[in-house]
Every structure is written in C-alpha cells, then in structure tokens.
Design brief:
Layout (H helix, E strand, L loop, with lengths): L2 E6 L5 E5 L17 E4 L27 H21 L1
Antiparallel strand pairs: 1-2, 1-3
Length: about 90
Amino acid sequence: MPVYEYQCKDCGKIEEVFQKISDPVCTTCSHCKGRLNKLISQSAFHLKGSGWYVTDYGGAKQGSETKSEIKNDTTSNESKTASAKDAD
C-alpha cells in the first residue's frame, strides 16, 4: 500500500499516511485539526528480480559459446577439411 505525505497549513507538521489509491484524500490535521496539503514526494521502490543489473545481461553467459565463437569454429573446421582434400 502506498505511503502519502501531507503537510498541515496551520502547524506545518508533516504526516505520512498509508492509503489505497482509491481512498479519499486526507483533509484535516490529526494534531491541530488544520487543513492538509498533499505533498509530492520522492517515491521509494525496489527493483527485484533478474535483468535489472548490467551484470545480468549484455554479455555471454559462462559455459556457453557466443555466436562469433561458433562461427569461427565452423569456419576453421571447413578450412581444415578443404586442406585435407587438397593434400590428398
């Protein structure tokens, strides 16, 4: 559930309120019963799971060959086969 911040116009206190998005906006201060203004604050969220870091993708995985390595192996095998035919 998101946390919203409200600041009282009268006393200046800031309140943090856990609310659903669909809940009505708070209008009265719990300290002095003054009017509240909803603040726009920096959100805090966590990026969880794989794929969020540079180390998770972008390079070859350990133990697997890249396309260029496979292509180089195929090319070298073809040239070895051609050299063997020429020698015969």
